[in-house]
Amino acid sequence: MHKDVKEILISEEQINEKCVEMGQIVTDHYKDAQEPIVLVALLKGSVPFLARLINHVDLDMEYDFMDVSSYAGTESSRDIKILKDLDRSIKGVNILLVEDIVDTGHTIKAIIQLLKNKGANDVKVISLLDKPSRREVDVYADFIGFEIPNEFVIGFGLDFNEKYRQLPYIGILKDEVYQ
Ligand code: PRP
Known about the structure:
Layout: E1 5-10, H1 12-30, E2 37-42, H2 47-54, E3 62-72, E4 78-84, E5 94-102, H3 106-117, E6 122-130, E7 143-147, E8 153-154, E9 170-173, H4 175-178
Parallel strand pairs: 2-3, 2-5, 5-6, 6-7
Antiparallel strand pairs: 1-9, 3-4, 8-9
Helix pairs in contact: 1-2
The protein binds 1-O-pyrophosphono-5-O-phosphono-alpha-D-ribofuranose.
The site of 1-O-pyrophosphono-5-O-phosphono-alpha-D-ribofuranose (PRP) has 14 residues, from strand 5 and helix 3.
């Protein structure tokens, strides 16, 4: 275990099992879809989850990336700046937005709207982690791996100052590292 980790919240084995399970759920959900399916992953945190998940999705599909930064507007909304947009048109496409974590909910709320404005046929969200106690807007992921308590979590894509993303598990960061 990394020296800055207080406790492993979700082990590598639990993540692997969950990705198999979620891959099957995604496959079942879209297996009869007539429209193209594009998984859209938000950089950078969702990369490990996307990589593990797609091994277990048995569908004709594509994946693409977006990078956004959000900055406070009013308390109830955030403005989103697109740093990297999608490479293709998504008109009429079924989008599965891939996230590592839904926290306040501002990010997925803004991105869902943005993808719908681009003409997506349908937008669903899959997130490895959900922290419902932190939610500020009424938004939810359609498929959730683990609901977690309000702890500072790192690993499997999640960072603190860009560090710890490479850890193969989800850990709780020691208080003294960020205080
Ligand atoms: C994190 C995470 C989600 C978002 C969730 O991204 O990957 O995209 O925050 O937070 P919210 O529900 O409060 O909007 P971050 O902006 O830290 O970028 P990163 O993925 O590059 O770490």
